[in-house]
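User: Modeling request: complex.
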Amino acid sequence: MELSAVCKMQAKRRVLFNQMWIIMRISLLLLVAALHVSAKGLSQHVTLVRDKITIKEALNEINKQTGYSFIGGKALLESAPLVSLSLKDATIEEAMDQCLQHLPYSYTIQGKIIIIQSQEIALSSDKAVAEPPPGDVHGRITDSLGNPLAGASVTVKGAKKGTQTDADGNFVLRAVNVNALLEITFTGYETQYIRWDGRSAISVKMRQAVILMRDVVINKGYYTEKKSLSTSDVSTVTAKEIGEQPVSDPILALEGRVPGLYIAQASGIPGATYTVLLRGQNSIANGSSPLYIVDGVPYNSVTLTNRDIPGSAVGTTNPPDYPYQPPGGLSPFNNLNPADIENIEVLKDADATAIYGSRGANGVILITTKKGKAGKMRLDVNCSSGVSSIAHRVAMMNTQQYLAMRHEAFRNDSLDDPSAHITPQPSDYDINGAWDTTRYTDWQKALIGNPAHYNTANVTLSGGSATTQVLLGAGYSKQTMVFPGNFKDEKISVRMSINQSSINQKLHIQYTAGYTNDNNLLPSSDLTRYITLAPDAPALLDSTGHINWQKGTWYNPLAYTLPKYKSVTGNLLSSVSFDYEIVRGLKITGNAGYNHSQMNQTNQTPATIRYGPPVASNRRNYLSTANNNTWIVEPQMVYNRAFGRSKVDMTVGSTIEYSGFNNVSYYGMNFLNDALIGNIANAATKVVQNNVVFSYRHSAVYGRFNYNLSDKYVINITARRDGSSRFGPGRQFGNFGAVGAGWLFSRERAIAKALPFLSFGKLRISYGTSGNDEISNYQYLSTYSSFNSYQGVTALQNDRLANQNFAWEVVRKMEGGLELGFFKDRIMLQTSYFRHRTGNQLVGQPLPTIAGFSSVQANLPAVVQNTGLEILLNTTNVRTRRFTWTSSFNITVPRNKLVSFPGLATNASYRGYYVVGQPIFINHGYVYTGVDPQTGRYTVEDVNKDGQINSDQDYQVLGSTTQNYFGGLANGFSYKGWQLDVLFQFTKQNGVNSALVNFSEPGSFNQNQPLYVLGRWQKPGDHTKIEKFSQTFAATGIAWGWASQSNYAITDASFIRLKTVSLSYSLPAAWQRAARLQNSRVYVQAQNLLTITGYKSTDPETQGLSLPPLRTVTAGRAAGILKVALNQSK
Amino acid sequence: MKSLQYIKWTGLFFLSVLISVGCKKLVEVGTPSNSLVSSDVFSNDNTAIAAQLGVYTHMQNYSMPYSLSEATGLSADELITYSTDQTLNNLYKNHLSAGIDGGVKGYWQFAYYIIYQENAIIENVQRSTALSDSVKRFTLGEAKLVRSWWYFELVNLFGNVPYVTSTDYTANATLATMPKDQVYQHIIQDLQEAKNQLSVSFRNAADAPGTAERARPTVWAADALLARIYLYNTKYDSAEQQASLVIGNSLFSLVSELNDVFKMNSTEAIWQLEPSVNATVAPEGQDFIITTPPSASGFAHDALIAPLLNAFEPNDMRKAKWIGSYTQDTSTWYFPFKYKYGYGYTGTLQEYSMVIRLAELYLIRAEARAQLGETNAADDLNAIRHRANLPDYAGPANKDPLLAAIMHERQVELFTEGHRWFDLKRTKTIDTVMGGPSGACVAKTTTWQSYQQLYPINPNDILLDPNISQTPGY
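Assistant: Request completed. Predicted assembly structure:
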């Protein structure tokens, strides 16, 4: 609310009261305009000591010093009374108060405009002053180029009258007072004020608003606030940034853009999951996934891909009820259409997340979809198409090099053990003549080298009146894959949103609903795994065009493309919310939502996947149906009020949430022929594999108290009492809370004077707690479930080791932040330092497998600390009328440490894994000591010098495979209609040494190697980094095994990636006008264009033999077609 | 007016808030609909039996007796693998490494998983007051028998191992390795208790006695296992007594037709496991019978090797009936053909996995008697030889040649049933058979080292429980 900024009057109390009423109502209409409040730099303060000057001179001087301009008060200026002023470093309010002292005028401040009104007009506004008689105002509103602005709001200041412009920008207001002040607002434009003065027609050109980042209103879920006044750490990614990237999963568009948010893709296959860590891993063993909320409804972030359905190229992961979910399966966020998203807000610190209580520990990600806006109905169409391909190939050996390696391996092995007569065996098909050694296949080209096509189309119809806004949208996207065969990910989405408000704007209702259908056809294995096949391995197809098994001497990777593996996901997301102002300042609001997602998987495997005569039991049809339902109801009450310079904002509310999951998986086998597999009824044998069912309930009551003094000092207190069904009886409830404080020191007079270049400065701190309940359900119960049947009787097995006594894991979050704006905010620097300490760790406490299970759910009195420095620097490097260049740089320096662990030394379950003072990601293994120049074998340190290498005695603490720092650099250039956006992403990290971990021992059968292993040991005295070739798992192979468990297997996997390039050109306004178009543009976008890295395998981000993130280049065009406006005022 | 409305709205609102906070029901979800709470399982005879049946389905679901036969057959002089699976290759090459193979941790983990399930059954059944006496007894007996069977496998695969008898994970997490001899004492004690509890007649899964189904162990399985364990521990008189109890029982007799020995419920079966639900063949048939060249792309990936193929005497019908071959081009592979129904068979189920069978008892008694110097030692040996169409043992009647003949008979009678590797170790002939100048390792192109007769222990378990010691040599 802008109340206190608006009202500052030396007048009777009744006047104030009336004025407030008027302004209050108007300001509701003006919420949008409030976003544009911008201080144009200059000083905020006035120094003016003059005796008896005209009011006109005084106001001119104030305008010069502060940039505030004046509207109204024509009569006042004409009457030119003399005033005496004595202002030293006074605020604008103080200056105005002195100017208008003893004069029958009052003023209000709207942004950088001061409206001067006669107190009589203000007082008598509903009484209708008799003269001159009211008349009709006709006018036209355009942009600076003269294009009509449809749906701009025109209101009479101080009266209840208002209308909107029609499709041609025209408006008519009936029975308006001649002195009336008209206020014209339009989203994205600066608000204008104009006095009618009885003119026959009014023409207004609107200027595009420059929205300062700090003036943006941020959504914190249960409430919103202005960024400048916020006491917490929230990052926002907007539709524009999401739209620049050709990605089908909106979360991937956040990569490199949000400080503190680390995202790593595990696979470049469309729809695959990825790792998301917001401010590090707080939990030793548990879920570290942020809480995702879409339009107020918790969104299931766990993949529905069922691991009982064999063979999916994106892999499978833990059961859905298992807290720790490594990447695997299809991402649930692939069911959101990036084009539907208005913005994504990332809530990080205690002040922002404590109100989410038990689930805010790992941060909260709020996704808000696009809503209809008032204005002419408009049809927006956006289509693009492009091509994806693998960006980088591993340099592998050719046939000659490979064969030479194999023969050398045999020679080496013979020399090692001359008595054994080691020679190629009948099974060494690659060199014993069974395979044609003159063949050469580039397996990367054959298996993952095809171009994949990328197509999207989005259509949106939106518009509305002041009271009703609607949006209808539909989207389609299709991505094919780089594998041989017809694989694709196809997605269709539809959605709608309706906003309705009462004419008096006291009641607002919003309804949104969206449905997405994603159809993913995948091969049954990621063929990237098979790029290590021998280069002389047989041809994929025989002369008749069938799969070539070469007499069963190999497993032909093309067989993985034969099963029909399909995942069809439907996702319905719907929410309704309302707010109603009961009395001034007091609102009740409510939000209810429902999310249903369902995935049907099928894998139809024909008998041809194996060599030999077709076997009926190979013909299988696996099916799985999984669905997840979530509903939430959240009543809330909000009170806000200004008292003098103070503003109070209070919220209380409660949450009731239910989530249910059900999954059935089954298969049929023994089909008579391949053609019958599609119908499971044709199977001779049908087996139900699994039926997973769980329910989750959550309920809470929460409150917030926010106090703001003079927009300079802000304190924010939040608290929540929270219960979760994941804990045993008596342990369900927990209390969480946080305090945040902000000091806008740039508004202190002394600082503003001393540092005139400083346009904005804020210091904020926060401290509080939030919790984590991301564990499996029912862990406190000892249960049995069915496991097949024996002689026709259902058999049971014990599910887990049960523990009744675990409770909340609690994160204590502390943060300090400094936000600075320089030179009219052309440079904005935001830095924050945080420390999160997580105690009462909820762990699947690892157990030696002799206990029957490898873990049990428990609390652990250990403390894990995540600290980090996050810097975000936004600059406007050049801003001229035609050319602008803006930059945004962010970097995160995360650190993770195990702070304490009482009894670690004697804790059998953990001492082998963790070390106090070290990150929880440390590895244990051998210490690598190089290739022995004499034997040519890898060596590792024999710690206890017993002459033997034993994992239990010679393992040492090795480094960790985490990020040292990461971030991104975005640059945006615009010149006339051209817009170029470039995003670089960078990560400094350690990763897995692919030479050792992803490839076999160099020299093994049918295992091609990266070219650099040619730098291997050949003869005694050689100093090399690669051991000699060998094809046995004797001494050389064992040494290779040691090295792969040593720090030699940890390598630098840092990279800089040119993540996104987006170039667009907006068609000239005149053309667009002629064609009745708006926002029409053509564009070219590229993703993962270039990667700079020293990493030696497929990709430093995915780090394994999985499909690397693809390079995608697309071209597209977008157009907005104007249609008739709804609900025209006549 | 306004204030009235205000009060009404706020009242409603706070009421809803209070409801949500005051009601614990909002955070209670009850028990999952797809599982049963443990205490309920053991308050009903049928579900208590079902818990024990779960152990059998688990073993068969993971092809357990077969998988152990394959692993030990590869380690010994029976099988070669054509699989690309590294652990299988390392088993064949006798080059297991604690790091690479995780100490063949699959077998280790599986054994202890089953032992946990049995410990949970024993604890719950003992605690239960609702179960009928007979179900209580039989379930306890079966649980102890299965637990013993797995401990027997564990000590023979890994040597000294931790002995777990409860479900208390805090205590179990720090258990120390127990010397093999002590584990054997526990096994013997368990089996003797089981003998008093198990049913004397076969019972089916619905617990009806007098069934032909031999898929649940009876008192005779306990006797047979005891006989084996006494033999392994050189308690020959006890071994002879136990073996005689089984051999003398009319339930069991040697099946004269070799092709029918492994059929379901054959009279030779002391304890069999029904294959996994809906399977049409036993894992042994499915995974041993070669129908395409053994390779990564075929289903069967192992073949028999020369030391076994050459061990058969001329005219041994077992070579003709229990060994199959597959030829393509100029290559021929031989495979165990004791189980006749393999990969691709879709008819009705014919065979169960054999866990213990009578022929072994004859050979146990023969060996015990030979060790004790009893004159009738060759009788049991000849019973086995006759069935294979071989003449009576004609060698010298003194102990050593007779023992050698019995060992040879065990090799050709019990091959790929998980005995050979253990026999070589307990008779201390392993170093010669594997590593001698004409030992099996010559063909394997590896060098035999004596420590390789035991497998390495899952290194993760050692990290988590330092009281467990790694097998010497690893």
